[in-house]
Write a structure and sequence with these properties.
Layout lengths: L1 E2 L13 H10 L4 E4 L8 H9 L4 E12 L2 E8 L6 H27 L6 H5 L9 H10 L6 H9 L14 H10 L3 E4 L9 H13 L4 E6 L4 H14 L2 E5 L24 H6 L2
């Protein structure tokens, strides 16, 4: 059993890289990829922990790209985290995220939520602070009980405390991952809510620009979507990947490796992904 999609405290998860490896080992996983949002800062610790365990660890990332009114998430696997072009792009994204965070804080304060930046920062192990950390701070103060409610009422797109941020283009994401020696993969395509034909057109376009795979197995994908995405992978000669998208305590009903209880990512996925 493997899991190629999880997040640590270095982005919007609640577990350290070491805790994720330990959880994977306890759960009987043979391989795990850390795919934090727009940062590689947790990878050194993650890979070091993997070297001391029975779990094979894989360097990963999840980049956010502009896609019309939506956001396209692109996973990267097996790249060099020290690649200069990749790190320059991540710094640009990080600077924009900081600007956006202060806009969100200002809006929340204006709405009567008495939050400080330190209230939010303590829920992140790094400078990379995002909306889930605001949600965690609001939950801690007793305003909400679940992250989903915070996003539905305050932090989701077009909600009262939402603020947009810098994003790369899909083409930039693909080029950054490939130039760093990695494989770019479209994350959780089912969440994009595209028709099959629209997804096929997107995949065809990105395949021509270097797309390497599609996340077929994901905690949110029902069986009919899994079958459809497998067909798209076969049609466009893409690697089928999968993972739970584990975030820790913020999604307590979702577990590493098994998602909501019925996720099974085939072991051969890793063989196909690695050179």
């Amino acid at each position: 059993m493997i899991d190629l999609h999880c997040h640590s405290v270095f982005s919007d998860g609640t577990n350290t890289p070491e805790e994720l490896v330990a959880l994977a080992e306890q759960g009987g996983l043979t391989a795990l990829a850390l795919t934090d949002h727009d940062t590689t800062d947790g990878l050194e610790r993650f890979m070091a922990a993997g070297a001391q365990s029975s779990v094979e660890t894989l360097a990963g990332i999840e980049l956010s790209a502009e896609f019309g009114e939506k956001t396209l998430h692109i996973l990267g696997y097996g790249f060099d985290p020290a690649n200069a072009a990749l790190q320059a792009a991540l710094s640009w994204v990080r600077d924009g995220r900081t600007e956006r965070n202060f806009q969100i804080l200002e809006k929340l304060n204006a709405l009567g939520y008495n939050l400080t930046y330190e209230d939010v920062r303590k829920h992140s192990a790094d400078d990379l602070i995002g909306r889930p950390h605001f949600a965690a701070a609001l939950i801690e103060q007793g305003h909400f009980k679940h992250k989903n409610k915070v996003f539905q009422q305050l932090l989701g797109k077009n909600c009262a405390a939402y603020a947009d941020r810098r994003r790369l283009t899909p083409e930039q994401c693909l080029e950054l991952i490939r130039s760093a020696g990695g494989v770019p993969v479209i994350a959780h395509p089912g969440q994009m809510k595209l028709t099959r034909n629209k997804l096929r057109r997107l995949v065809k376009k990105l395949k021509e620009q270097g797309l390497g795979g599609l996340e077929v197995w994901h905690s949110s994908h029902p069986e009919y979507q899994i079958q459809a995405f497998e067909g798209i992978c076969e049609e466009f000669d893409l690697i089928a990947t999968g993972g739970s998208d584990f975030h820790g305590k913020l999604t307590p009903d979702l577990s590493l490796g098994i998602g909501f209880g019925n996720l099974v990512v085939p072991d051969e996925v890793l063989v196909n992904l690695l050179p």
